[in-house]
Amino acid sequence: MVTAGTSVLADALEQQAVTVERVDWRPPPAGAMEALDAVVGDPRHATANATAVGRMLAARPSLVDVGPAGELLGLRPGVFLHAGPPLEWARASGPMRGALVGAMLLEGLAATPEEAERALASGAVTLEPCHHHAAVGPMAGVVGPSMWLFAVDDGAGRRAYCSLNEGLGRVLRYGAYGPEVIERLRWMGAVLGPVLRDTVRRRGPVDLMAIIAQALQMGDELHNRNRAATSLLVRELAADIVAGDAPQADLAEVLRFVNGNDHFFLNLAMAAAKVGADAARGVPGSSLVVAMARNGTDFGVQVSGTGDRWFTGPAGLPDGLYLGSYGPGDANPDIGDSTIMETAGLGGFAMAAAPAIVRFVGGEVPDALAATRRMYEITLTEHPVYQVPILSFRGTPVGVDVTRVVRTGILPVINTGMAGRVAGTGQVGAGLVEPPAEAFAKALDALARQAR
């Protein structure tokens, strides 16, 4: 017996020794059926979705360069990128404010945190989303001109960018800006970035798709678990790093830093996911989601068929495990561009490949398997390269479809880190979060207006 909705019938049947399969299903929200009919009935819809998701899957991401944002993106002094949809200082959350303060200090635009806050509040600097510059940023995602980025090519000349990963704990992306944070960022700009740039330019492109596919076979899901992928990257680059011209002490320090940071590959995976998602943009009639992102205040989605428009709702509070004495009252609402991983069929969508992730975000191993299986209901296809061993090497669910999300009521599952709500705190935990349903409903309405 299969049941959906309230549990009364299922409970009664189970009491009579009837085997029951409970299905997580909710009817579409009021008024959604007309919009669904308009979008699904659009003669362009099926072909448009096939085209968009085909372009996403055709991307073959490779690391091709490393350099400062001022060089790679043409980012000017006084311009800062941030995660998520557009945001003003007045609406910025604690971790976003902390990261912007730290970036001001790093760029030499302020001598003290107080001076930085005054300048930011006065509108003396420009804030723009990373996504508007073919970039993504984890957590607060703040990028200034002097900060170094990975450049990832899709194999057809399209590029996407992401910052270098700082490690865990009290780091800029979680809103911390103490002296140790600024000192680490300066070392990354003076030593880590140049060594990686010289290595990549000397050896040639690094095939990120191959590393991601292999890491999935080794227990990563590439959002909150990147241990295998980081190890594979070190194996790929180590010989070329030590053959570089930098002082031996610097080369050794770079290898120690990367090897000691299990999340180092995350930022590369984000850029790889971004370049594939960007390839799917701009297909009229397509309901494929090409970006999901959070700025600590809003959760926003972008859809292939609606251009660069953002559809937003309030960012939710993750549910998971907390570090030390931290608790729910210490956590900020969801933040970061790292949901590009789920957009591309990784992260929460690939949790079945990484059952150990539940020790980091909470839950049990069956929950990880169920999360991946549930995502097949709201996606257009399965990834031909990214496969899940425990599901008999079935491809990860990929291509979030707005119409399927609204019709089923099933929301994308996202695993994420948690930033402290007070600026300067850093990371307080990790867990799972669902995006606001209204963001997808707004996107559906926009698609329906175009179809009519």
From TrEMBL:
It comes from Thermomonospora umbrina. This is Uncharacterized protein DUF1116. InterPro entries: AllG-like, OXTCase_su_AllG_h-dom. Pfam families: AllG (PF06545). It comes from the Bacteria.
